[in-house]
Design a protein that fits this description.
Layout: H1 14-24, H2 30-43, H3 47-51, H4 55-58, E1 63-67, E2 74-78, H5 83-92, H6 114-127, H7 136-150, H8 153-160, H9 165-171, H10 174-184
Antiparallel strand pairs: 1-2
Helix pairs in contact: 2-7, 8-9
GO molecular function: DNA binding
Protein name: Site-specific integrase
InterPro entries: DNA_brk_join_enz, Integrase-like_cat_sf, Integrase_catalytic, Tyrosine_recombinase_XerCD
Length: 190
């Protein structure tokens, strides 16, 4: 079986983002699936780092430190905007027994697998007819939204742990946007 390769992009339009999150709240595990997505778009964490979180990392905290799996670098997460959603999830859906914030439904001694959340995102994407959604969409959406709000490229580059500003712009889809905009009004005869 061959997997379709998709060009994963950020969700740039607020209405699509709102609709996507509303659809996540219609899944079998609405609070879990919504919280995973929110952590991704509020922090820019990779899915592997999100699913590696433990209850002790987030419960009763507004800030937490983790070591990113891919880079092995320390990262401080601001959880202030996520506190209420974490409380709701822990009360309504978490089994209370697993140390993992998002335990596997089959074995709560293990975290939810990346491919399991990918399938959830793909179902929502298919329902909304979006062909650019993957788990990295969360991280890219964070980057795009952060850049649009702050225009602080050096800080974003540091948060995403990129080696250059050009990489960061390309990663969040700004480079393509800027090229398109520059060509829209381009007329060598004027």
């Amino acid at each position: 079986m061959t997997r379709k390769i998709i060009n994963v992009k950020p969700i740039k339009e607020k209405q699509i983002l709102k609709t996507f999150t509303e659809e996540l709240r219609q899944t079998k595990h609405p609070e879990r699936d919504y919280l995973i997505f929110c952590i991704g778009i509020f922090t820019g964490l990779r899915i592997s780092d999100i699913l590696n979180l433990k209850v002790s990392d987030v419960q009763n905290r507004v800030e937490t430190n983790i070591i990113e799996i891919k880079t092995n670098k320390k990262r401080t997460l601001n959880l202030m905007q996520l506190t209420n959603q974490i409380i709701i999830y822990l009360k309504q859906e978490h089994d209370g027994e697993s140390e993992w914030l998002f335990p596997s439904p089959r074995d709560n001694t293990k975290p939810l697998a990346t491919h399991q959340y990918y399938k959830i995102m793909q179902k929502v994407a298919k329902d909304l007819e979006l062909d650019y959604i993957g788990t990295h969409t969360m991280r890219k959406t964070f980057g795009y939204a952060y850049y649009q709000k702050t225009k602080d490229l050096p800080t974003l580059m540091t948060i995403l742990n990129h080696s250059s500003q050009a990489i960061t712009l390309r990663y969040i889809g700004i480079e393509d946007e800027q090229i398109k905009e520059s060509l829209d009004d381009f007329n060598p005869l004027n």
